[in-house]
Design goal:
Blueprint lengths: L2 H23 L13 E7 L3 H14 L3 E7 L2 H14 L6 E3 L3 H9 L26 E2 L3 E8 L22 E4 L5 H12 L4 H10 L3 E3 L2 H10 L4 E5 H9 L4 E4 L7 E2 L2 E4 L6 H12 L1 H9 L28 H19 L1
Parallel strand pairs: 1-2, 1-3, 6-7, 6-8
Antiparallel strand pairs: 3-11, 4-11, 5-8, 5-9, 5-10
């Protein structure tokens, strides 16, 4: 073999070896949701830890390339954390999944949210979809009157009933400074012509026990410590399912509800994964999980939790969100002033 032949043969062998090495050292990228979404996704949420863990387990099973990291706190604490991060740098979350639409309206007004319309949006209740496309509701969570069935034989059927002196010292409710749902409800009640400030004044005159959040309210009613409570309905179903003597009354004078929206922050470092996450939350499977977790869904093709009324049978209130967003801080301040 002459020199030229030896060089050519050596080059061919070298190229083959390089290709072999490359095929061994560069495995195909793992599939992530079928479209390559991958990396770390940070979610700030007010969801109970066990529920968000179960939800994320299913999401990552469908999207193995995405590592979901969660910071969980009450809506008030989440807002405080986000405010602090804005002052010192950038927001640490990609997705916010928390209680009430007014929170998202504020972030939308501050130009903090990414405009994104989730897949299959036409299957969703239009009342939970931001018409501007910056966030979308993921559950229907009504606030109801809970009562201990062993202590209350004739439960209250309206908000007005709770202003009756017979309930003095017998009511518990969540702190609107902590609970986004409670803050939202307070603004809604004050905006109702048949309730308003006179009703809220009478309610506070009945000396309700203010608990830190909805969870302790439900527990107090189930235990009979406080026989009547103002609380989100899914907690009542959960405790009743476990055998606690607790039931829910859906007020005939209107039921406020939150939709626990999800939104993507504009400066998210992983917008592709964030979009996949929002899509999953409102997908058919995501909403089936919501129903399994005792929530009322935002789409009509997944059923409802056992024992829950039909949405058509609940007098849901749909106030103007701009009005609620503007009035909510003053509403919470009014409640606190009444409490002294």
């Amino acid at each position: 073999m002459n020199i030229v032949s030896r060089v050519a043969a050596s080059g061919i062998l070298g190229l083959a070896a390089a290709l072999t090495l490359a095929s061994c050292s560069e495995p195909a990228a793992p599939e992530a949701g079928g479209d390559g979404a991958s990396g770390t996704l940070t979610v700030y949420t007010s969801e109970p830890q066990a529920k968000i863990d179960a939800l994320n387990a299913e999401f990552t099973a469908e999207n193995p390339g995405i590592d979901v990291q969660v910071f969980r706190a009450g809506t008030g604490d989440l807002n405080a954390r986000i405010a602090s991060e804005r002052q010192t740098g950038s927001i640490g979350a990609d997705v916010l999944l928390a209680a009430d639409a007014p929170t998202f309206e504020k972030y939308k007004a501050d130009d903090l949210l990414l405009q994104y319309t989730p897949a299959d949006v036409d299957a969703l209740d239009p009342n939970v979809v931001d018409p501007d496309g910056y966030y979308v509701g993921t559950r229907i969570i009504p606030t109801v009157i809970a009562y201990n069935t062993g202590a209350v034989s004739q439960p209250p059927t309206s908000w007005k009933d709770l202003a009756d002196p017979q309930y003095k010292g017998r009511i518990t409710l969540p702190n609107p400074d902590v609970s986004g749902a409670a803050a939202f409800n307070t603004a809604v009640w004050l905006g109702q012509e048949d309730l308003g400030l006179p009703w809220l004044t009478d309610l506070v005159a009945n000396e309700p026990v203010v608990a830190e959040s909805n969870g302790p309210v439900a527990q107090a009613v189930a235990a009979g410590t406080q026989p009547v409570g103002i609380v989100v309905d899914y907690l009542v179903r959960e405790l009743a399912e476990k055998g606690s003597p607790i039931a829910a009354s859906y007020p005939t004078d209107g039921v406020p509800y939150i939709s626990e929206p999800a939104g993507i922050f504009k400066d998210s470092a992983n917008q592709e994964a964030a979009q996949k996450y929002v899509d999953f939350l409102v997908s058919k499977r995501g909403q089936e999980i919501a129903v399994e977790q005792q929530y009322l869904p935002v789409r009509s093709d997944v059923g409802t939790p056992e024992g829950a009324p039909s949405l058509d049978d609940i007098a849901l209130l749909n106030p103007d969100l701009d009005t609620i967003t503007a009035s909510q801080p003053d509403a919470v301040a009014t409640f606190n002033d009444l409490l002294g």
